[in-house]
Design brief:
Layout (H helix, E strand, L loop, with lengths): L1 H17 L31 E7 L3 H14 L3 E7 L4 H12 L6 E4 L4 H6 L17 H4 L3 E2 L2 E2 L5 E10 H7 L7 H13 L3 E4 L7 H12 L5 H6 L5 H17 L13 H9 L3 E6 L4 H7 L5 E4 L1 E2 L6 E2 L1 E4 L2 E4 L6 H11 L2 H11 L2 E2 L10 H4 L2 H5 L6 H4 L3 H17 L6 H16 L1
Parallel strand pairs: 1-2, 1-3, 7-8
Antiparallel strand pairs: 3-13, 4-5, 6-8, 6-9, 6-12, 6-14, 10-11
């Protein structure tokens, strides 16, 4: 019941933050394809050969089958794919282009920069796309404001802790059901000479985030809404998780300073070569697992809380795909979105990303690890702080740098939530 209540609260938060609701959104005529037009008429080059720019955080390997199929349908449109890895590198790259007046024809809008994209008018109103009539409000309005939709978000993802089945058996440990059991599993793995868990410099805050979910959100489902309204502070919700992370992971040697120089790819390499028992990830890792070690025996477990029965997965509606409002070839950019949102495009996207689609009527199968999580994802029973933060990019930067500084020994755990509150107050004052 607590998680169902959270789902309702998250939907309410979406309505508050994004300024939309099922009542103020587009009508059935608007989303049927022949109704409401975009707020800016796209420019068109007819059928003359053109090259559109596409800023993506999906790499070329992932997008290749989609782009090839698009080119078969529109041979006169060449796509200049510009890749920037998620999350921070992509957000910074997008910001540079936006501020330089070089908004791409097609680009990714993420939870971390959605307010910047929408409020500054970088993205075209795409409410008229027919696909929205086949999507729930949770997916449809993730990247919207005042009933207008500015990015097409076709999927959701759920993540957790991948674990190596063979290494667990070797150490004589099983999947933990509580936080104390989880810490005991880490220690038993370490005592057996097995590296328990790996992190990169870019995801050090994953454990504090997980502890925030199990210790704060599980008890106060509308916590983020209260912070956004000034009724609660980040100190109240994040201090305990950061202190637990420091005391139980850093001090006990499960998170080590060498991780400050490790990339996400190196973490995957460690996991697939069976040098580490656990890593935090999601469906985007499956392709690398299959390529690097087809015989790898792995499964996924949720994050567990200090109270019995508290289990959570991280997750969110995925990134959205936007068309540059003032981009040179936004008409051709719309063609790409129309193709991506078609049954053919969605089937290719799902196969390439192992995503859980939020569009009705597409048949597909998932990896067994995620197939059992599919009903949970479709219902929206997952959580990611960045989705409901008022200032997602700013808070994410503070958490990233703060977590690195804590591990480096130059910052106390309690300082990160304090910095988050100070930044929130500063940004509120600027508005």
């Amino acid at each position: 019941m607590k998680k169902i209540a959270l789902l309702i609260s998250v939907l309410l938060v979406f309505s508050i933050i994004l300024g939309c609701s099922p009542q103020t959104g587009s009508t059935s005529q608007d989303t049927a394809g022949g109704g409401k037009a975009a707020d800016t008429q796209p420019s068109s080059s007819g059928n003359k050969p053109v090259t559109i720019t596409y800023l993506s955080w999906h790499n070329e390997t992932t997008l290749k089958p989609i782009i090839e199929a698009f080119n078969e349908k529109y041979p006169h449109i060449t796509i200049d794919l510009q890749y920037a890895p998620p999350i921070q590198d992509y957000v910074e790259k997008a910001k540079v282009l936006f501020l330089a007046g070089e908004t791409p024809d097609v680009f990714v809008t993420a939870a971390e920069n959605k307010m910047e994209v929408i409020e500054n008018g970088y993205a075209m109103d795409i409410t008229h796309l027919p696909v929205f009539s086949r999507m729930s409000d949770t997916f449809k309005y993730t990247y919207a404001k005042d009933g207008k939709i500015y990015a097409f978000a076709p999927d959701a993802w759920i993540g957790g802790i991948y674990y190596n089945v063979k290494l667990f058996e070797q150490a004589g440990v099983t999947v933990p059901n509580s936080y104390d059991e989880f810490i005991a599993v880490l220690q038993k793995l370490k005592d057996a000479g097995i590296k328990p868990i790996a992190f990169s410099k870019d995801n050090l805050y994953d454990i504090p985030q997980a502890l925030f979910i199990t210790e704060t959100i599980d008890k106060i489902p509308d916590y983020d809404a209260q912070v956004n309204e000034g009724k609660m502070t980040y100190v109240e919700g994040w201090t305990k998780p950061y202190r637990m992370w420091y005391d139980d992971f850093i001090q006990k040697g499960f998170v080590t300073k060498d991780m400050l120089g490790i990339t996400r790819e190196q973490v995957v390499d460690e996991f697939t070569t069976e040098q580490v028992a656990m890593m935090i990830g999601g469906p985007w890792n499956l392709e690398s697992f299959a390529q690097k070690n087809p015989d790898l025996e792995f499964d996924m477990m949720p994050f567990v809380g200090t109270e019995p029965g508290v289990k959570w997965n991280i997750g969110a509606v995925g990134v959205g795909f936007s068309v540059g409002k003032n981009a040179k070839y936004n008409a051709e950019g719309m063609k790409y979105l129309e193709f991506l949102s078609s049954d053919e495009g969605l089937a290719l996207f799902q196969k390439a990303t192992a995503a859980i689609l939020g569009v009705e009527g597409i048949e597909y199968t998932l990896h067994p690890v995620f197939e059992r999580l599919k009903p949970q994802a479709v219902q929206g029973l997952f959580y990611l702080p960045a989705v409901t933060w008022k200032y997602s990019e700013a808070m994410g930067q503070i958490m990233l740098k703060g977590s690195q500084d804590i591990l480096a020994g130059v910052l106390e755990p309690e300082e990160v939530p304090r910095q988050m509150d100070e930044k929130r107050i500063e940004l509120d004052a600027q508005k």
